[in-house]
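user: can you give me the structure for this one chain? tokens are fine.
assistant: on it. calling the predictor now.
[tool input]
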Amino acid sequence: LLYGDEKFSASYTPFYNTGILQHKLFANTNNFALHNKAKNKPQDSFVNNENLLVSDTKELTRDLENEQFTVNTSFNCGVVGNFTKKNNVQLGKAGFLVTNEVAAVFLSSLDNYSIGKSEKLLVTAVGKAENFGTVWNFAEDEVITKGKGPVVSEPVTGTLVFENENKLSAFTLDNKGNKKPKNLKIIGNKVTLDLLASDQTLFYLLEKEK
């Protein structure tokens, strides 16, 4: 379900918890829609617009055609899934351009302000992830050898563009939370963060300059 392809199962999906949780969320909410026909109208659970499943708050969307799941709220937005069919996703005033085949990319406010006003934000970008030494079959739909830790992840490459009223500075974070300065483009209220393989990180911290 994560990839929109029935040959993949959640237990074999080379992804971090965001992907597994997305799979569970879709399964649980889809079951809710199926088992509440007597009490709820379809629009009370999901709006099924051809290949789109949309929550009643319009904050969660499952795009079956493009094999993507999106979250779009004032404090958190992002996209999980396949980017081969649609690699440019616009969520409100945030745009995600991803060149990976599959990935999970999220922009989250870490304070009590919305993304457009937040003084501290976290960008999470995770590509395919699996145990070191994992071996797949030729079709890449079954694990032959599970491997062992540590977990290794494919870097996410692309561009994140969003609006924020503050002058922000960007940092990459290592696995211990140590910060390393990162170039950030700001023109007016438009912030552009380039996601590069050379960053060697899953997390970017954006903070208001003091």
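assistant: here you go. The CA atoms of residues 172 and 199 lie 7 Å apart. The helical segments are 17-35, 42-45.
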